[in-house]
Amino acid sequence: MVRLELQREAEQRQHDDRQQQRADRRRTVELVVGAVLALAMLGGGVYVARDSWWLSVLLCGPSLLAIAKVFVLGRSDPDDMKAVSLAARTATNAAGQAQSPQSPPVL
């Protein structure tokens, strides 16, 4: 009986070790994906800054921080999404005003 109990405990430890390794591997993959996504957004924002500043604001603003927070910390707060939507709304409104067609001068 003692040998069976020791064998069961050894199997349980092995199972727990495998679960821990899977969790560590998953966490590492999440961090790598988050870092790659954040760097891609930052690079894209810098690349388009000269031509479309409003798109750069969308890529490098609060949305970048919210995405990084989701992948690194594994959580998202409602305030994050409010900040992202406010930045997106402000940037698109400003872009619309800046790019509105000029009326031709009256002669």
Structural class of the helix and strand makeup?
mainly alpha
Basic shape:
elongated
Task: Summarize the main sheet.
Answer: none
**Helical content (DSSP H or I, runs of 4+):** over 70%
**Average pLDDT taken over every residue:** 82
N-to-C order of helices and strands: HHHH
Give the number of DSSP strands. Answer: 0
Alpha plus pi helix count: 4
Cα separation of the termini: 105 Å
Radius of gyration: 25 Å
Low-pLDDT residue spans? none
Tell me the fraction of residues in β-strands, as a range.
under 5%
In brief, what are we looking at here?
The protein has 107 residues and is an all-alpha fold.
What report would you give on this structure?
The chain has 107 residues and is an all-alpha fold. Helix content is 82%, strand content 0%. The chain contains four helices and no strands. α1 runs antiparallel to α2, α2 packs antiparallel against α4 and α3 runs antiparallel to α4.
